Amino acid sequence: MTASIGDKARPRRVLIIVENLPVPFDRRVWSEATTLRDNGYQVSVICPTGKGYDAKFEIIDDIYVYRHDLPLEARGALGYVAEYGAAFFHQMRLALKVWRTRGFDVIQGCNPPDTIWAVALPFKLFGKRYIFDHHDICPELFEAKFQKRGLLYRLMKVLEWCSFKCADVSIATNESYRKIAVERGGKSPEDVFIVRSGPRLDRFQPRPPKPKLKRGKTHLVGYVGVIGFQEGLDLYIDAVEHLVRAKGREDIHSIIIGSGPELEAVKAYAAEKGLTEHIEFTGRAPDDLLLDVLYTADVCVNPDRFNAMNDQSTMNKTMEYMAAGRAMVQFDLKESRYSAQSASLYAKPDDIVDFADKIEDLLDDPTKRAAMGAFGRKRVEDDLSWKESIAPLLAAYERVFARLGRAPGDVAAVNPQTPAA
Length: 421
Description:
Layout: E1 13-18, H1 27-38, E2 42-48, E3 57-60, E4 63-68, H2 77-101, E5 106-110, H3 117-124, E6 129-134, H4 138-146, H5 150-166, E7 169-172, H6 175-183, E8 192-194, E9 219-224, H7 233-246, E10 252-257, H8 263-272, E11 279-283, H9 287-296, E12 299-302, H10 308-311, H11 316-323, E13 328-331, H12 334-340, E14 344-347, H13 352-363, H14 366-384, H15 387-402
Parallel strand pairs: 1-2, 1-5, 2-4, 5-6, 6-7, 7-8, 9-10, 9-12, 10-11, 12-13, 13-14
Antiparallel strand pairs: 3-4
């Protein structure tokens, strides 16, 4: 066994558990893990396989990654029982393995789903602490996916409450989530830290556009992100149809990068609308293609439909468009407007004609596009990049380790005041 909590020569040990994406593919979790490592923490991660990361165990940049298989994405009540049950079994099995071998002082659980608290709970009996990293508001996510509430929705509310109740400290991705933690989760405001999912700017280095990506058209419109019902790609296809059919904009090509449960349905919908000449789907793409598309796109889009989930959530695609200096069009949602501000035009929620008009406005005004893109890049540089999230992340850990009797700065051979960029 490793040294006791009181041993000041032993680094602080953290176990991060994430269920919905593998690391390092999950950029937020990987940024958290590497930031903690760079500040002297010993970091282990439990996550699923997938997205090209199929090794059950590997050490990446001194971070120990333990992976497990999962059933296909849940559809319906039985699917959720199968997925969450399998995840709980593997997470508990691997948490016990990490506890016996490397040890940990704190578990950080990254939702969705809101079930990881159940893995942490037995370890709390042995003096471990739990940080709830609140990525998604799961009751609202369930409602957005399935367009209903009912028994499962009420169960989601209970599980969310349990997540907050079990957590010693909660991490929120924005102010809306912080409000939920305090008002719905009953957390003390001083125990909730906002750690935004800001992009790492070294990933977004300007590159020359690739005109061939426009497939002979004058303009390129880009989308990068998940393809599910709540992402509103069907609304975007309707907007493209309006641009092409009603406005005669045959000069537009669109590239949609990403995968998700609605990818095939969205592709079929575009074909049904006769838009295959104007809309190209790449599926999941390597970073090189993704960045080529972003730096070639004249405009980027975020067609997230209006619902409680999207209105209160900060979307990675919005942040990435800004980091790449792209002007964008979005529906007018609370947190999307907070993030992008003047880097975006805002269409009336779910209004495809207004969305199409806003796209056309930007396509026909390169000066406006350039100014909006420059504003977005500067906003990320000044306020929203990952480096701005380092201090609150470390503060959250200082608070939870203080409850373990570990004073600030008691990590061996590190300087916590020197965070990695």
